[in-house]
Design goal:
209 residues, 3 domains, 8 helices
């Protein structure tokens, strides 16, 4: 207990000193030889969050992603879902345009704060395999390029890195848009921080005679 901590002074621990000194914060996960160490082996030691599963920027495709890969394409984009933990906008895919009832079901998932990155949109039921999101992602994963493809749905432009709606505009970005089918938006802050402009589908430039 710190003598400088006002909260600790006003709310001193009720345990005996020897018991209080033996308490430890819950440790972060620690990987050794490709496997997570047991809780008993890391409790009471200094750890950091570098091995936290959700800190991995790129997750491998889940088995469901592989099974349903024909749905996870730009022409099947129907809506988006917002993660309740990180706030990122994740693409919702379906074979056909969502009916009013299906749209209400997706909206209900949003209202009840059910969806989180890496999970199915519907864990069971009739929509489990027909209205889906990509599951091989986590809260550190970037926005999906399919969000910006505009094949079937056009959404509000948000920054590819931080999903801010205040976006940068300059001559370099305009020139980049002339050379690619998809140029994901980027905000001024991320641009100034040196984050890259995400592009896809380079356009063929006709050679001048």
């Amino acid at each position: 207990m710190s003598d400088l901590c006002g909260y600790c002074i006003l709310n001193p621990p009720r345990l005996q000193d020897d018991l209080f000194e033996g308490l430890h914060f819950l440790p972060d996960p620690v990987v050794e030889n490709g496997e997570y160490k047991a809780f008993a082996d890391v409790h009471g030691t200094e750890t950091d969050d570098t091995a936290r599963p959700s800190a991995r920027a790129q997750e491998p495709a889940s088995e469901r992603d592989k099974t349903l890969k024909k749905l996870l394409v730009a022409t099947k984009v129907r809506n988006f879902a917002i993660c309740r933990e990180c706030g990122k906008w994740r693409v919702v895919y379906s074979p056909k345009k969502l009916s009013p009832a299906e749209g209400r079901s997706v909206m209900r998932v949003q209202e009840e704060l059910v969806y989180a990155c890496g999970n199915p949109l519907f864990h069971a039921g009739v929509y489990h395999n027909t209205i889906i999101v990509k599951e091989g992602i986590n809260c550190n994963s970037l926005m999906e390029s399919a969000y910006y493809a505009g094949k079937r749905m056009q959404f509000v432009d948000v920054c590819f890195h931080c999903w801010d709606t205040e976006l940068a505009e300059n001559e370099d970005l305009t020139h980049t848009k002339e050379g690619f089918g998809i140029v994901c938006p980027i905000c001024q802050t991320c641009l100034e921080q040196g984050k890259p402009v995400k592009t896809r589908n380079a356009l063929k430039v006709k050679k001048r005679n």
